[in-house]
Design goal:
418 residues; Immunoglobulin-like; 2 domains; globular; 7-stranded mixed β-sheet; alpha+beta; single chain; 6-stranded antiparallel β-sheet; Aminopeptidase
Length: 418
């Protein structure tokens, strides 16, 4: 438990009950912050993200503040953690400093603060009116394992024939859960298969909200969604790195490696090994056609985009056609307020073939049939629309693009019209 409490006594003779106090806590799932300084009189709190040894980037932060005076403004300062997170590597402050912080009075609905001001000292300063005596502040809208369970339970109760599953137990003993929906009927089984997962990097909470928007639309009564469930068996895993998401760690570049670099012949993480096994089994049954991994990108990105294959020009004609069809449909469907870039980006910062092959989307490409498309959707987090509503809108639009893509039959012969 992390609890910081500060008392201010206005003058001698003031009773304990009359003392002003501010308490900062992070003793809840996903909570993360280290208090650098706190001035209760001016309601100014200076934090940096907590550093969890071996657990990846210190960029995620999420805290509760109690004892605020609603008649006074509050100032939150966020700076980079000054210590290395791995060997001698110190994370740039920009990863921990969204333009607008997430804020809530009930830990359910999060809005955004006014934009931060960043000075030459590289400290982000968020100043706003205290909306309640108790508030929650975070890097972005939190999504913890209890959120995942709520989504899975609601979908399971809504969609007849759906099946919840435990993908694996994490190294920390936590369940990594998912759900299967669709699949058509016994008399007319669905011809296609889809796998969507989120949060291989635990700090990227926006990917989970995109995933929620995706699965809720796919499970809806919209006629196009009903048709999608007739066409496809959909597997959805809301959080892959459950351990780090639960403890509020970043996950990216964890020791010995993070989840999205663990897709080798000998994975470190049980949930990665279990996902590989299921994907190979689905592909062997001709029930894998689309794999999508949901992420958030760097702080400077302003539009969502897909990372595409490194070797697209060398791929089969069917592969090339399907990737072209997909990005075109996705760009037309994910059209705002967070509009998708209409072309693929390439993760050129990955310098070796060995590391490229340990990335989830590349692993799937090299372990599946010639009609399967595999991509990473990077949904931007540093905009005014990077909210619960904005992320879920992207997820809904992603599901609509998927419905239209599968309706055109990605296994049709090359040269045959849609």
């Amino acid at each position: 438990m992390f609890l910081w409490m500060f008392f201010i006594v206005a003058s001698s003779g003031v009773t304990a009950a009359e003392q002003s106090q501010i308490r900062v806590t992070t003793d809840f799932p996903g909570g993360s912050a280290e208090v650098v300084d706190l001035d209760a009189a001016s309601q100014t709190i200076h934090i940096h993200p907590a550093l969890n040894a071996g657990r990846g980037w210190p960029c995620w932060w999420y805290l509760r503040v109690d004892g605020l005076d609603e008649a006074k403004p509050i100032t939150l300062k966020v700076s980079a953690h000054p210590k290395p997170y791995r060997a001698t590597q110190i994370l740039s402050a920009s990863w921990a400093q969204p333009q607008r912080a997430a804020i809530s009075t009930d830990d359910v609905t999060f809005t955004q603060t006014p934009p931060a001001k960043i000075g030459k000292d590289r400290i982000a300063v968020y100043t706003f009116n205290a909306p309640a005596k108790r508030i929650w502040l975070a890097w972005g809208p939190p999504f913890v394992p209890s959120h995942a369970e709520d989504v899975l339970n609601r979908i399971a109760n809504k969609v007849p024939g759906s099946e919840r599953f435990e993908l694996a137990k994490t190294l920390g003993g936590r369940p990594v859960n998912g759900i299967r929906i669709g699949g058509g009927t016994k008399s007319k089984p669905a011809p296609f298969g889809v796998w969507v997962q989120a949060r291989q990097h635990a700090w990227e909470s926006g990917g989970c909200w995109v995933g929620r928007g995706f699965i809720e639309w796919a499970a809806s009564d919209d006629p196009e969604a009903v048709k999608l469930r007739e066409l496809a068996t959909i597997h959805y895993v809301p959080i892959m790195d459950v351990d780090n998401a639960a403890m509020g760690a970043g996950g990216k570049e964890a020791v010995p490696r993070d989840h999205n670099r663990d897709w080798s012949d000998k994975p470190v993480y049980p949930e990665v090994a279990a996902a590989q096994k299921r994907l190979i089994e689905l592909d062997a049954k001709n029930l894998l056609h689309v794999f999508i991994d949901l992420h958030n990108p760097g702080p400077g990105e302003r539009r969502p985009y897909f990372f595409g294959p490194f070797d697209l020009p060398q791929m089969s004609p069917m592969h090339q056609r399907n990737y072209a069809d997909w990005i075109g449909l996705a760009a037309r469907s994910i059209n705002g307020p967070l509009a998708l870039l209409p072309e693929y980006k390439i993760a050129s910062y990955i310098k070796t073939d060995e590391e490229r092959l340990r990335m989830s989307s590349n692993w799937v490409r090299h372990h599946s049939q010639s009609y399967v498309i595999s991509g990473t959707l990077e949904t931007v987090w540093n905009t005014t629309h990077s909210t619960q509503v904005g992320y879920q809108t992207v997820g809904r639009q992603l599901a609509q693009a998927l419905a239209r893509y599968l309706a055109a039959n990605p296994t049709r012969p090359v040269g045959e019209g849609r």
